[in-house]
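$ ./design --mode recover --in tokens.txt
reading tokens...
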């Protein structure tokens, strides 16, 4: 690696693998219960074994790793629990696609052979995921790697299912679910993606039925609107709002269902929106969630007219056997033919698609297994409201509350093969249903041995909901469970606050009596440069490993966190990535300059009396930055912590301190050089510790180049926050900075050559200012500083800094008359702008009618222009012959 150190551009590919092996040789990832220390535990949201990690995973894992590394340094007993999720439907879908490429289907293979194929896939992609996490620099305890279908975890899943069943919190029933005709299973709400599509809204007449039970051809009619005319054949009522005066006389009467040829009641229900459409809606309980609820309240019949394959059933009459898309066209033709279709108009609406195969979801009633969630949700909500678990950012607490207050029972059964098979058996002799933790051998009711296990598997989110305590050894009373539970922080996306976080809260509290985590930190989504969510269908995904390969893990890590607010989305833009890479290179080059000067550096910091003002200032700024970073990290303001750390390193440390000590490092004064070396070494030690949790590879490499490094940086303690405060040095050097910046600004405005040395004069300086300023004049290419009194009789450029007038004599530097003309032109432009704003503000009608914020903005701008005019007047005056 010594050769790498000679290169001017940081080459991460030559460093990162060796550094990761160094950490592993020292066994630094391993966790250990230590009752003398405070615990800090994060359970890694287990990535799905569907494929490789995406940018969202990368951001999430970097945030977790940063918090874990920070707490390791602070002396906590740390556990970052790693694992991967079996991801039932998603993994089955990708394996089926692979089989199709080979000319095979799961049905042809059979369940056992198919599952063998899925396990092969799991082994392949679990290894790939672990490899990717290692390349990112993730530091979990790999010895504890878990899988949501390993033997131990499966036993926990069975125990939880059986216990909930025996407590009456799991039941089997007929309920409306999201059904995917292509996958052939119920899917969770999360697995439904809604897309805005151009469709058609059909307005259809339902005529009143006469005393003989036949439709009145001449009317009157109730008109309803639908985007799914094929479901009219499953209508069992028409509903109106009970307070809608238009339909008060219709409630209790019957109307004729077009094409179906039968009468249904008109009912009143508050679920109907009076202001939507005609205020009357068709009710199809078997094929719509809202209609199902209405049907339950009114005891309506449920007619299935679309089956599990998306085809029309026998109950669909003339449409029987048609695909649902073909049935829609035929139904429209029949409605038009019979005179029931009023009109069809373009209509843009949201359509649910299966996120796995993109098929349009079919809501239908199915016999499924459900969790009775209300009693679980009440405890999960109370835990957050009482502060047992805190959600960051706080604004998502109201979202959490809304979901739990409006929760529905949770459908947990899936009609697929990959997943935790339901521990449910049916006796083929007597029909007895058995729910057991262990496979039963005979029926307890009739003694028969012909027991058939349910072919269904559990929703992936059911097993994932057990993750925090199942990975710590529950139901056994393990040391890990006693020490690390409740876990410290959960880091996850706001998009799964309900689907995963809330369910972990419900399960954790119910089975352990305690919340699963003290803090929930919600990050945003990773989007492309246009603000679009990344997805394979859009073709805008970025493989994080490609970025690791091209720019290094540290640059990617930094780009995914710096400046990002909690819960805010991040756009992966070229400028952001390039900025992160530039920052890493800045660290590299600053270290390459510094390290050769640190050989032979004295141990420890010198006494304060031996320090220069610049030394004292950088030590204070190090203390201040350490304090601010620690406070921000403690409040989970990760992006802001990294932002101020970057500003400190780039501006304070590199631009001011490194530049300011160069004469001492290259000089002949041994004592002054030794002091500078000692402060520089101390600064690097602290800076590397502050940066390490977020850019671990480059900081560890640089640490190894510092003198006398016996332990890895990863094992080095977090810098303390006391002992270096020096408000006096901060105040005095800020005056120096102000003076030098003023001189630099004058040079830039006058267009002076960067290497040209100048003379400056100062008038009215505060006590001690010029003495503090003199040692650092070289930073503005100033060869001489004179203190002057009285009137200035020669052309000068002027500035004010730290209460001091600064003059730059112009003789021999530039054409004074041209400079005076330039300033006069600028003065005239500013004055014209000032007068325009002044006239506007003096206009009474404008002040009364314009928005308050606009008037305030103009007033502020007027004051700024007035100050600029005064400055320009003063500068022009000093250029007069």
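writing sequence...
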């Amino acid at each position: 690696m010594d050769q790498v150190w000679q290169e001017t551009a940081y080459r991460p590919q030559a460093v990162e693998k060796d550094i990761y092996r160094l950490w592993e040789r020292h066994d630094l990832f391993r966790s250990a219960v230590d009752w003398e220390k405070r615990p800090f535990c994060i359970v890694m949201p287990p990535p799905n074994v569907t494929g490789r990690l995406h940018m969202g995973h990368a951001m999430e894992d970097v945030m977790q790793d940063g918090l874990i590394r920070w707490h390791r340094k602070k002396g906590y007993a740390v556990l970052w629990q790693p694992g991967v999720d079996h991801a039932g439907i998603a993994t089955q879908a990708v394996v089926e696609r692979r089989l199709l490429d080979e000319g095979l289907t799961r049905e042809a293979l059979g369940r056992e052979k198919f599952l063998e194929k899925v396990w092969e896939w799991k082994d392949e992609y679990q290894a790939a995921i672990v490899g990717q996490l290692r390349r990112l620099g993730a530091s979990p305890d790999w010895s504890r790697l878990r899988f949501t279908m390993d033997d131990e975890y499966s036993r926990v899943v069975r125990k939880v299912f059986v216990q909930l069943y025996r407590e009456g919190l799991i039941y089997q029933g007929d309920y409306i679910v999201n059904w995917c005709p292509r996958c052939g299973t119920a899917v969770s709400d999360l697995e439904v993606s809604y897309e805005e599509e151009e469709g058609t809204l059909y307005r259809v007449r339902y005529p009143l039925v006469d005393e003989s039970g036949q439709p009145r051809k001449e009317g009157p009619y109730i008109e309803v609107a639908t985007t799914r005319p094929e479901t009219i054949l499953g209508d069992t009522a028409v509903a109106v709002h009970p307070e809608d005066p238009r339909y008060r006389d219709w409630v209790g009467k019957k109307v004729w269902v077009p094409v179906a040829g039968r009468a249904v009641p008109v009912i009143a229900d508050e679920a109907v929106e009076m202001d939507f459409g005609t205020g009357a809606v068709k009710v199809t309980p078997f094929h719509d969630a809202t209609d199902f609820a209405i049907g339950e309240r009114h005891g309506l019949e449920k007619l299935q007219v679309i089956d599990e394959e998306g085809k029309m059933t026998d109950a669909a009459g003339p449409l029987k056997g048609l695909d649902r898309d073909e049935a829609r066209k035929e139904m429209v033709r029949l409605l038009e033919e019979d005179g029931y279709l009023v009109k069809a108009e373009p209509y843009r609406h949201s359509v649910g698609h299966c996120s796995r195969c993109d098929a349009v979801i079919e809501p239908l009633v199915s016999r499924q297994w459900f969790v009775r969630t209300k009693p679980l949700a009440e405890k999960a909500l109370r835990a957050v409201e009482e502060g047992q678990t805190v959600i960051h950012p706080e604004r998502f607490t109201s979202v959490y509350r809304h979901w739990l207050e409006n929760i529905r029972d949770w459908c947990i059964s899936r009609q697929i093969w990959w997943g935790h098979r339901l521990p449910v058996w049916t006796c083929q002799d007597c029909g007895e249903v058995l729910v057991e933790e262990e496979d039963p051998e005979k029926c307890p009711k009739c003694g028969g041995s012909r027991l058939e296990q349910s072919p269904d598997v559990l929703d992936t989110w059911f097993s994932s909901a057990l993750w925090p305590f199942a990975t710590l050894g529950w139901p056994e009373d393990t040391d890990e469970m006693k020490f690390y539970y409740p876990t410290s922080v959960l880091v996850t996306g706001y998009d799964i606050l309900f689907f995963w976080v809330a369910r972990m809260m419900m399960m954790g509290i119910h089975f352990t009596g305690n919340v699963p985590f003290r803090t929930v930190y919600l990050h945003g989504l990773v989007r492309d440069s246009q603000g679009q969510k990344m997805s394979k269908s859009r073709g805008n995904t970025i493989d994080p490993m490609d970025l690791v390969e091209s720019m290094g893990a540290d640059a990617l890590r930094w780009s995914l966190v710096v400046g990002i607010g909690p819960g805010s989305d991040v756009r992966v833009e070229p400028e952001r990535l390039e900025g992160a890479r530039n920052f890493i290179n800045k660290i590299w080059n600053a270290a390459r300059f510094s390290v050769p000067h640190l050989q032979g550096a004295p141990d420890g910091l010198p006494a304060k009396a031996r320090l220069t003002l610049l030394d004292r200032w950088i030590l204070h700024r190090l203390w201040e930055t350490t304090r601010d970073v620690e406070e921000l990290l403690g409040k989970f303001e990760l992006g802001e912590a990294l932002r101020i750390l970057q500003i400190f390193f780039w501006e304070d440390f590199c631009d001011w301190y490194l530049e300011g000590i160069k004469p001492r490092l290259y000089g002949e004064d041994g004592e002054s050089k030794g002091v500078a070396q000692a402060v520089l070494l101390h600064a690097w030690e602290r800076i590397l510790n502050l940066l390490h949790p977020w850019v671990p590879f480059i900081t560890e490499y640089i640490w190894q180049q510092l003198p006398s490094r016996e332990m890895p940086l990863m094992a080095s303690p977090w810098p303390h926050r006391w002992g270096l405060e020096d408000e006096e040095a901060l105040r005095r050097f800020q005056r120096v900075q102000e003076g030098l910046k003023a001189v630099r600004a004058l040079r830039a405005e006058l267009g002076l050559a960067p290497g040209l040395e100048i003379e400056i004069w100062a008038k009215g300086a505060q006590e001690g200012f010029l003495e503090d300023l003199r040692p650092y004049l070289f930073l503005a290419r100033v060869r001489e500083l004179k203190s002057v009194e009285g009137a200035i009789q020669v052309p000068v450029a002027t500035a004010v800094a730290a209460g001091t007038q600064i003059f730059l004599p112009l003789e021999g530097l530039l054409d004074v008359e041209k400079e005076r003309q330039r300033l006069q032109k600028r003065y005239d432009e500013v004055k014209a702008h000032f007068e325009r704003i002044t006239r506007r503000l003096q206009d009474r009608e404008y002040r009364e009618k314009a928005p308050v914020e606009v008037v305030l903005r103009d007033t502020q701008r007027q004051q700024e222009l007035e100050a600029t005019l005064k400055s320009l007047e003063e500068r022009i005056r000093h250029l007069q012959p």
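exit 0
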